[in-house]
């Protein structure tokens, strides 16, 4: 389905596009073409650390095995942080 909307630029040449996207969209990739058209695509930002993790097949498989494990436990990072700050 294609939705077409006419938008007006403000005095500074800006236009508000937020209402065109779902509430969970917070990042966009913009592509500007030679003919002047612009295409906006919802995007997800991934940190370099997360990108490196996903590129490491062994690390991803180890995480998957741990997630499926019945003996793996979740680490309470907030409790560990709190303990560190009180020990300092």
Describe the model.
It is a single chain. The chain is an alpha+beta fold. The protein is 35% helix and 11% strand. It has 3 helices and 2 strands; from the N terminus they run ββααα. The chain has helices at residues 48-55, 57-68, 77-87; strands spanning 28-32, 38-42. Strand 1 (28-32) and strand 2 (38-42) form a beta hairpin. The model has no long low-confidence stretch (mean pLDDT 87).
Brief descriptors of the model:
elongated; alpha+beta; 11% strand; single chain; two-stranded antiparallel ribbon; 88 residues
Main β-sheet: number of strands, strand sense, barrel status? Answer: 2 strands, antiparallel
- Average pLDDT metric: 87
Low-confidence region ranges? none
The first-to-last residue Cα distance is 58 Å
- Number of beta-strand segments: 2
* Rg over CA atoms: 22 Å
Give the H and E element order: EEHHH
Helix count, per DSSP?
A: 3
Query: Going across the major beta sheet, what is the strand order?
Result: 1-2
Shape: elongated
Structural class: alpha+beta
Strand residue percentage? 5-15%
Helix content, binned percent: 25-40%
Topology:
Layout: E1 28-32, E2 38-42, H1 48-55, H2 57-68, H3 77-87
Antiparallel strand pairs: 1-2
In summary, what is this structure?
This protein is α+β, with helices and mostly antiparallel strands.
